[in-house]
Amino acid sequence: YGYAMYQGGNLSRYDAKTGHRKLIKPLHPERKTLRFNWNAGIAQDPFDNGTLYFGSQFLHKSTDRGNSWKIISPDLTTNDPAKQKQSESGGLTPDVTNAENYTTIVSIAPSPAARDLIWVGTDDGQLHVTKDGGERWTNLSRMLQGVPAGSWIAQIHPSASNAGEAFVVINNYRRDDWKPYLMHTTNFGKSWNNIAPKNRNNNYALAVVQDPDESSLLFLGTELGLLFSLDYGKTWTQWTNGYPTASTMDLQIHPREKDLIIGTFGRAAFIIDDITPISELARKGNELLDQPLEVFSPKDAYMAFLKEAEGIRFAGHGDFIGENRPFGANITFYIKELLTKDAKTDTADIHIFTETGSLVRNFRTAVKPGFNRTNWDLTCNGIRSAANSKPAKGTPPPSGHWVLPGKYTAKISYGQSE
Fold first, then answer.
1. Rounded Cα distance, 152 and 104, in Å
2. What are phi and psi of 315, to 5 degrees?
3. What number of other Cβ atoms are within 10 A of residue 271's Cβ?
4. Tens-digit pLDDT profile for residues 209-248
5. pTM for this structure?
6. Which pick of 37, 63, 122, 234 has the fewest CB atoms within 10 Å?
């Protein structure tokens, strides 16, 4: 099942197998008016994928994929009547798109570390937490020291391992405050620290994600691109490799593939394949970068036959289809500096061995200073055909047939380092 929402709290569930769709927008049991943000907060329970949470001014909960709902909170906004006059806009007709709804819930985050622990944020600066599934709520808004009252609680990211830890992205650009706010707590919101970059006061924050395996690794989505930190937010670096200076609205780390999935304001999606090398760097520290050559642990590679896109003969004739990750095994390594001064690129040798130490494949790959990633296509060394001219001495052999499934060792050689 999947869930899709558009303005006015119009929420639907779709069945990816049958194509069936159903409107599951919650209603108030007493038919009171519900206020839904243009982007109303929605979340799925990490312990039960049939349980959903949805936000108006109240927190709604469903345990049957949206077929029925109950309200599990009081009004968690300021409920300020002065901010609820969208029907009195002064025009010939009132706003009917729900784009001007205010005092609404925009972020909902059930904790993956503890059942019934739920964080909720609103567009008028209210931050609440419950530890018992909504029986009792604690307002944490006044604990956010240094954050202007009434700022937008854009996103909440609870820790996957520490129940008391959470990151809260807050922005206030709608009132001409362009500073980033990334509030961090480890004690259920009793105290907070702003760990956002200190020297980027014109670049407000929009989204955050913490690596589930290495807690010190953070990614921060901002109005001007993607930042990452290896040290719990003490220092931040702009990610520039293959990613634009785009408004970065949402971030997720795939729990199995360890891919960083990025959504932008321009309705684009980017995927940075396999961030385990960055996790390893965060774990081992920057001293790793002093090594002349460092090879990172690769993930399992899969040998498979890939089918064509459905419905058309060639994918290029139909809808746009994004780029897939390279077939085979991705191998990531780091080179501190090139051997030839003033050179921008060079080559390194890659050797693939079986478990018994037999060489099955060797090839070369272009390298540059810093992180490098190459790909082994799971083939062994082949034989030059008679139609091809004799290669230069030392040229690696062409690729041959696929190897058998098993465990293989990759050795990277560059100069005297391997």
1. 10
2. -60, -35
3. 16
4. 999 999 999 999 999 999 999 999 999 999 999 899 999 9
5. 0.91
6. 234
